[in-house]
Amino acid sequence: MSVTTGSRPMRILEHGVYRGPHLYSHRPMVRIQVDLGEMESWPTDRLPGFADALIAAMPTLDSHHCSLGERGGFLKRLHEGTWLGHVVEHVALEIQALAGAKTTRGKTRSVKGRPGVYNVMFAYDDEAAGLLAGRLAFQIVNALLPEERRGVERLETLTDGTADLSGITTVEAAVPLVKAARRRGMFGPSTQALVDAARRRGIPVTRLNGQSLVQLGWGARQRRLRASVTDRTGLVASELAGDKAEAKALLSAIGCPVARGVVVRTADRAIAEAKGLKRPLVVKPLDGNHGRGVTTGLRTEDEIRAAFELAVPHSRHVIVEEELPGRDHRILVVDGQVVAVAERVPAQVIGDGSRTITELVAEANADPRRGDGHENTLTRIRLDDQAARDILERQGMTVDSVPAAGQVVALRTTANLSSGGIAIDRTDQIHPDNAAIARRAALAVGLDVAGIDLLAPDITRSIRETGGGIVEVNAAPGLRMHLAPSEGQARDVAEPIIRMMFPRGARSRIPILAVTGTNGKSTVGRMLSQIFRHTGRTVGLTNTSGVYINDEQIAVGDSSGPKSARMVLRDPTVEVAVLECARGGILREGLAFDSCDVGAVLNVQPDHLGIKGIDTLEDLAAVKSVVVESVSRRGVSVLNADDPLTLRMAEHSGGRTCWFSMRGGRETPGFLLKHIGEGGLAVLHDPENGEITLHDAGAAHRVCNARDIPATLNGAAAFNVQNALAAAGMAYGAGVEPTTIGAALSGFASTFEQNPGRLNVHDGHGFRVILDYAHNPEGLRALGRLVSAIRPPAGRTIAMLSVPGDRRDAEMLAMGEIGAEFFDQLVFRETPDNRGRPAGDVIRLMSQGAEAAGCGPERIRGYHREEDAVAACLEMARPGDLVILTPTRVEAVWRQMLDFRPAASMDGGPAGAMLEPPHG
């Protein structure tokens, strides 16, 4: 939809769906970023008649408290004056509420530095329905504006474009569409009840497909279900339950009362076999369900033949059996115990002497509890099928007949809810004998969750006395008749199923350790993986290189976002999840989990600023802080005591705070001494002797000496000492003993195999090469300090440097300045895609920064391609030199370095290289 009568109409800029904790809330939300255009100058109090028109169109908005915290709060804001983004938020929430969703939370926030641009956010229970509600809310609000103010551009981006929605401008038209979208995405009643019961227990829930397949729990502790079928429901048991004749024979063999019957394949055989059975009879498919193709009360050969024709489309084999006396009951058995009993009454109407059967059915279907299929508590009664017509014909009636007052007219012979029947709770009334028979039947068939269909004249008396028996044993029994019976007490039958899957005390969550920060995330993650593997556990790790299950890389490329984290949490072998959480994923859709056991923010340094509204270090810190704000109440937040921005996060972080600091020993700051003195948790490095010590509950525990960690290069790589402190604090927070942590770190060498692209050292060419992903100023400065500490006394330092093209000019200038400070020869290069910058721009800016720091042009070279820049560095190197490569394509550069052989050069550079003049 795009109506542009105004000079600057509203415009949708972008949208997203937050699925986990995010910058604005811990609740899942839809986010729509809108530029109000000229409407920024037109709050609601300046729009004559708008507020009254909106209230008339949607009077239920009076229930919205808004920020005033009282009923009618939003309407007060509407009359006082608020902006249209805020109005859309409330309309989108209310459309969903009218469609049946329980959504009440929303936020609308202006985007800093962009006048008129707002993030409109609101809760949802179904993503597609939420986005649709957002689009329709804009259209409704737009239609209520004065004609000269109307216009919204790019609304079509909020939906899939399969339907023309541009004409939907009223609440009455919008709500059914959102209701239909919710219905398409909703679980059925049984699955939803199980999901709700799991969530009440704090068990994570993950939907695995568009239907009802659900994962409960994470990693190695996960369980799965589809409706009432669990991952422990056996195939043999399910197949046996589906074969009614085999199941009945098995039950008969152990003394359970069942109906006598035979299995046939033709109508003639059915009639012949019926002669040996006592009338009335039942004809049904051998392996049918939901009462499809079942006919009861049969006495004549014509009725049997007609019933056979109704049954055979559902199964090649058909059962003819004696009809047991009594009323139809469904007994739900879970884990060998009866948890609920319902009497099922077939669909019927009661005449009033004036209305037709069609009219009486219409009245019954008007009950709001009735819906299509299994979506509601009850199912609508249908008169448009052969079964209904046959039953009416047997009663001498048609759909146009007018039954007498009080006359009961049967519309189905089976009592299934799916055919319009009702349920009456009888759980407290079942006789112990009948319950015992149902239990034995479920156990005999082998079902962990079973629906036993029992016919009994009086459920309060034993069927061994009254007659009756088991008709069927059902796998995947529906739960809605027990959850919301038409009469009697509702039974929480989902809870015992979840309790069976996760007995009290059983854990559904694996430890999640989430790490974020500007620099060091990947190395800390690798260290943690090493530590937990040292304890014998299977580790799922995500970082910017890929997804790893122990040593196996199962995905390649940047995997520091929520999609990759979900991959780890779904893996059934993973016992510990170590997840790198980069800013991009947090901004895009939030975290992949509702809470973590340990969260860490390593540092906050200038990087990625000016992107996605994150313009300052304080903005970036707010994004990083989401990780520690999501730490569970009993968890641990690990924070850098040497970073002023992480210091501030302790106030809002979850669980206990564990500080780590390079200023241990005599340099320990006063606030840390106080924290430790009060029994707080901290990991400190003593710069005088290199010792790493963990403090907790007033006791000091030695971890190891920093010089004993190979990745620190005998303690010279201060940034890896700091990374080891963070890893130690995180591992201890997850229950690993300090001695185990120290032993594991002592084997962490940061080789290419262990930690690709992070301080990888190679000495095979007569000169040393260091490969390190130092891609921002602070990371390069830390690497420069290390090089200064270990540089050869007579050799040169040659560095290949670059920076992603989406960084600000200031970062590119800074990279050049830092390069000039620490390295003798500078080889600047472009990144593979330059992220929107023109060719040569990155090299030009870094060269300017280097020259401003006093670096002569003779020390600078520039190359478009990474491989040419690598070749230039390697061919320049002589014995005793130190070459520093900061790659984008880590594996390709490492291979190129290993394969390097001296070659002919041009002006000291690689043959055929495209040199980029330093000044662009």
From TrEMBL:
Domain annotation ATP-grasp: ranges: 248-502
Superkingdom per UniProt: Bacteria
Keyword hit for Chloroplast: no
GO molecular-function terms, A-Z: ATP binding; cyanophycin synthetase activity (L-arginine-adding); cyanophycin synthetase activity (L-aspartate-adding); glutathione synthase activity; metal ion binding
This enzyme's EC code(s): 6.3.2.29, 6.3.2.30
Catalytic reaction equation(s): [L-4-(L-arginin-2-N-yl)aspartate](n) + L-aspartate + ATP = [L-4-(L-arginin-2-N-yl)aspartate](n)-L-aspartate + ADP + phosphate + H(+); [L-4-(L-arginin-2-N-yl)aspartate](n)-L-aspartate + L-arginine + ATP = [L-4-(L-arginin-2-N-yl)aspartate](n+1) + ADP + phosphate + H(+)
PROSITE patterns: ATP_GRASP
SUPFAM superfamilies according to UniProt: Glutathione synthetase ATP-binding domain-like, MurD-like peptide ligases, catalytic domain, MurD-like peptide ligases, peptide-binding domain
Family in the record: In the C-terminal section; belongs to the MurCDEF family.
Role summary: Catalyzes the ATP-dependent polymerization of arginine and aspartate to multi-L-arginyl-poly-L-aspartic acid (cyanophycin; a water-insoluble reserve polymer).
NCBIfam families xref list: cya_phycin_syn (TIGR02068), PRK14016.1 (NF010623)
PANTHER family: CYANOPHYCIN SYNTHETASE (PTHR23135:SF18), MUR LIGASE FAMILY MEMBER (PTHR23135)
Subunit structure: Homodimer.
Name used for this protein in its record: Cyanophycin synthetase
Taxonomic classification: Bacteria, Pseudomonadati, Pseudomonadota, Alphaproteobacteria, Caulobacterales
